[in-house]
Amino acid sequence: MASFRIDRISEEVRTAVDNAIRSMNDPRVTGTYSVTRADVTRDLRYAKVYVSVLEEDKAADLLKALKSASGYLRRELGRQVDLRYTPELLFELDRNIAYGAHISEILNRIAPESREKEQE
To answer: In the chain, what are the domain boundaries?
Structure first.
C-alpha cells in the first residue's frame, strides 16, 4: 500500500473523529482542544489520535472521556469514512503546541540579551 494512501486515510480519520468529538454531549469534553493528527497503521486496524488541550488541568478529564467514548467515536468514524475495517481508536495527548510555546518563550528571553552583547 502506498504511503500517500495511508496519509490520506489518516487525514480523513482525523477530520471524522474531530467532527464526532464535537457532536458528543459529555460534560468532560469542554474547553479549548483540537485533534492535531491521526496516525493509521498500515493494516488499517489501529489509529492513534493526538489531541492538543490548551488548559492543562482539563487534559486528563478530556482523555478519560475520549477513551470511554471510543466505541461511539469508532462507530461514527465507520459511518463517515468508507473503509473495510474501522480502526480502533487510541487517544494520546499532543504536547507539541505547549513545547513550541515554551521554546518561543526561551528565545524571547534570550533575544534581548544577545542584542545587548552585539551592541558592546
So the answer is: 3-95
- C-alpha 65: how far from its chain's center? 14
pLDDT tens track for 60-106: 888 999 999 999 999 999 999 998 889 999 999 988 877 888 898 89
Of the candidates 53, 65, 81, the one whose C-alpha atom is nearest the C-alpha of residue 25 is 65
Q: For residue 66, which of 53, 80, 85, 55 has the smallest C-alpha distance?
A: 53
So what CATH class is 3-95?
A: alpha beta
Q: What is the pTM of this model?
A: 0.79
Which of 9, 1, 84 shows the shortest CA–CA distance to 39? 9
Residues 35 and 37: their CA atoms lie apart, in Å, by: 6
At 68, is the secondary structure helix, strand, or coil?
helix
Amino acid at 41: T
